[in-house]
Amino acid sequence: MRFVEAWRVALTALRANRLRSGLTMLGVIIGVAAVVVLVAIGTGTKNEVEEQVEGLGSNLLVVVPGRVDFGAAPTASRLQLSDVDAVTRIVGDRSRVAVTVTSGETVRAFSKSTFTSVLGVLDTTPNVFVRQVGRGTYFNKSDVDTQRRVAVLGASVARALFGDRDPVGQQANIAGVRFRVVGVFAPLGQSLGVDRDNEVHIPVTTAHRLFATNRIDAIAVKAPDRTSIDALATRIVAELSKRHPETEFSAVTQEQILGVLGDILGVLTGVLAAIAGISLLVGGVGVSNIMLVSVRERTREIGLRKAVGARPRDIGVQFLLEAVLLTSLGGTLGMAIGVGSALLVAAVSPVPAAITWWSLVLAFGVSAAVGIVFGVVPAQRAGRLDPVVALRSE
Amino acid sequence: MMPAVVARDLSRTYELDGVSVPALRGVSLEVAAGDYVALVGPSGSGKSTLMHLLGGLDRPTAGELLIGGRDVNRLDPAAMATLRNETIGFVFQAFHLLPRTTAVDNVALPLVYRGGIRAAERRRRATAMLARVGLGHRLDHRPNQLSGGEQQRVAIARALVTDPVVLLADEPTGNLDTATGQSVLTLLEEINAERGVALIMVTHDLEVAARARRRITMRDGVIV
């Protein structure tokens, strides 16, 4: 009964000061909404990046010279096409091995020019990675063998150089050498702010002559299935280490990349949530402040209640409930606004947002907890008021 | 019959900025059940302090105090609250009704803190008590819709709804005009007579004090 009365009194008190209650709640509303929106954006970004990494292809394994580690000095590659042949012998299927040698070059067509990454690759690339050619075709093995000057353009490069015209069959000038465009990739879009359509593929043999080098930057292998990835990686690294005893090699699997990216983006989401959490904390301080004012304002009421038999605990519970009611009401509104804003962001902007149930539970739980934590001090103060002093106050 | 209040050698000293200020210096008195006592004295004589002690709102610094047979010195704050709820009814000069709360809810408030009484039963008892003080037609009025005399009658109903042993009235007519004050006083006396509740009234009005069965005069923290 006393508990029911405490609820009734708390509701009455909040209703009696609508504007004040609303403004106090606003702090909590903004805090909770911020937590929900920012966590949604963080989670959405993480999901999108993971999708993109998985979309590269499946069961991928990339071998690079040097150690893949933060702070490790980049290692000049000593890999050559003969090493690729050795790797191909281990894999046993030429179509599962891809290579890259990359250089930044200026590409021209007609009066237009653009700076882009030019990748020397094998004709197996579309098989190893998921790359779809939108128009024309990819180059073939004989183009690679004969160092033919043919190029496949990324969608952005094609648009920059040719606009709405069909580039297939047209001439393009790469680093001062004339190439024939044989295909254009289907657009991939952006990933972490990087335009994935801003690249040009040419045969690796042609690239070697163009860049005046014979190095290979990386070798990618598509394993037949998930279980053979690790064994394959070990054998390839061992073979390459035997051929180049002075160089260290690392094999990176798709799962490792996903793990690292997931960790980074998880931290990012955590940081965003923490920043939003600070605003929730500030909202809690506001609740505490208002509750202290409320206790002072209702000193005489507290005195009277004590005189007719309210125990310190009865008074404390009443004020604590008032604080919790403020924050959980604010938390509920904040959740609704947060979910609405996240959906809006996802709908009208390129920023992805994914609402997770745990962020809602967390935000609401924290706001209710904030009410308890920040309501305790005012409630204790009210409960401990000396009834004689309280009744005397004007 | 057990006396309503027994006080032996009560003293109460306030500590103000490290200075001890004695407000009561050895007060002994006994109020029998159903007695009618006026507590008089100039301001600063200690009569308010004594009333707070007798009402279980404060504790003595030294001495023994039994209210309704219960030893105040043995009670913690929660038990003191229960003691007030079960044995004492307060009537204040300034009424002290809850604003935005109807007369019947104001009267039922002590029953809420008693616990274990259903809302319907609380309302029934409060309604009966309001009828007794002549406000059966004002149940759902709020304090700001009632006159001063009516507000004090609501306060009296609230003080009596728990069937207390002692009714403590602190200048109950102080905020009322003479005629209204007279009728409130008459009501208190009627209730004292018909219910056997001890009435202790603090007043500085000697005319009011003269109506009591007994008069206790205080000066400088002692009974004279």
Automatic annotation (TrEMBL), chain A:
Membrane topology: Multi-pass membrane protein
Pfam families per the UniProt record, alphabetical: FtsX (PF02687), MacB_PCD (PF12704)
InterPro entries membership: ABC3_permease_C, MacB_PCD, Macrolide_Exporter_MacB
Annotated MacB-like periplasmic core domain residues: 21-237
Keyword Transmembrane: yes
Cellular compartments annotated: Cell membrane
GO CC list: plasma membrane
Family statement: Belongs to the ABC-4 integral membrane protein family.
Name under which the protein is recorded: ABC transporter permease
Source organism (scientific name): Virgisporangium aliadipatigenens
